[in-house]
């Protein structure tokens, strides 16, 4: 015991290295999960595997949505659900039920996607629902895997944002003519 207490600097160094190691290990768990995320909404991870499975289930049911549209709807889904749950203006309806019935073994993520789309298409959100949704959207902490693009805020459309490119592709054929060559 005397050797350990005789070297307080050594003890502090060992404890410091142990603490750094523990923080690194704990932080690494979240990092790996974030790497596999299609998006994160207010700390809730939307996994790429869930997006892919939803995309595949929709495609098998002859519903063709691009993957970034699937991600957009899954990002909006919890915010939309919160907005209408306060007023009760929309509950899963016959449109939702018929679509889910056409997707054998629909996952929870696929059901969330279908619910968000059915809600938007129903146009049953009250002005108060829309205001609550937009306020929640502005406060939301949303990060998207660059594979799908970025969140592009909008004042229009049913969800008031899209996931895609923020700016158009700057390489446009014809806009940058080839330089003349000497003959």
Explain this structure to me?
Helices cover 56% and strands 11% of the residues. By secondary structure, the chain is mainly α. It has a domain at 49-164. Helix 4 (67-87) crosses helix 6 and helix 4 crosses helix 7.
Please state the structural category: mainly alpha
Q: Please give the order of strands in the largest beta sheet.
A: 2-1-3
Q: What is the alpha-carbon Rg in Å?
A: 24 Å
String of helices and strands: HHEEHHHHHEEE
Largest sheet: 3 strands, antiparallel
User: Overall pLDDT, averaged?
Assistant: 79
Principal-axes shape call = globular
Q: What amount of the residues lies in strands? A: 5-15%
Task: Please count the beta strands (DSSP E, at least 2 residues each).
Answer: 5
Distance between the termini: 88 Å
The tally of helices reads 7
Spans of at least 5 consecutive residues with low confidence: 11-16, 18-31
Helical residues, percent = 55-70%
């Amino acid at each position: 015991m005397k050797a350990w207490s005789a070297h307080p600097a050594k003890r502090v160094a060992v404890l410091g290295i142990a603490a750094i190691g523990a923080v690194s290990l704990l932080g690494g768990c979240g990092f790996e999960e974030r790497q596999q995320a299609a998006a994160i909404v207010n700390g809730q991870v939307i996994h790429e595997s869930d997006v892919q499975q939803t995309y595949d289930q929709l495609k098998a049911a002859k519903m063709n949505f691009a993957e970034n549209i699937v991600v957009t709807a899954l990002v909006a889904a919890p915010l939309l659900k919160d907005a209408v749950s306060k007023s009760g203006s929309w509950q899963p309806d016959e449109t939702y039920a018929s679509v889910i019935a056409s997707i054998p073994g629909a996952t929870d993520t696929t059901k969330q996607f279908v619910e968000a789309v059915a809600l938007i298409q129903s146009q049953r959100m009250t002005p108060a629902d829309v205001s609550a949704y937009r306020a929640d959207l502005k406060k939301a902490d949303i990060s998207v895997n660059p594979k799908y693009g970025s969140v592009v805020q909008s004042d229009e459309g049913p969800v008031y944002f899209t996931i895609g490119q923020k700016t158009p592709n700057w390489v446009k054929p014809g806009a940058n003519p080839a330089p003349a060559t000497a003959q």
